[in-house]
Design brief:
Strand order of the largest sheet: 1-2
Order of helices and strands: HHHEE
Oligomer: single chain
Structural class: mainly alpha
Radius of gyration: 12 Å
Shape: globular
Length: 75
């Protein structure tokens, strides 16, 4: 499984409706899907999805980035 496909699955299941750090994402994939993805490729896939607008990220109080799906824009 490619990291991007794993992240898309997380988006589709609603896991990323709230902010999650890379270690939280890794742990969830490992426990729920038995995918043990290294943090570097996972981080790169997350970054690409942030750049294309699929995800957004913010730093938490510990300085770690949390990734989540963007809130729908109000018109």
């Amino acid at each position: 499984l490619q990291p991007k496909a794993a992240i898309v699955w997380l988006i589709e299941t609603g896991f990323l409706n709230t902010g999650k750090t890379v270690p939280e994402i890794q742990e969830h994939l490992k426990k729920k899907r038995a995918y043990d993805l290294p943090s570097r490729p996972l981080s790169m896939a997350l970054l690409r999805l942030v750049r294309d607008g699929t995800l957004e990220r913010d730093q938490n109080e510990d300085g770690q980035y949390e990734y989540k799906t963007p809130e729908p824009t109000k018109s």
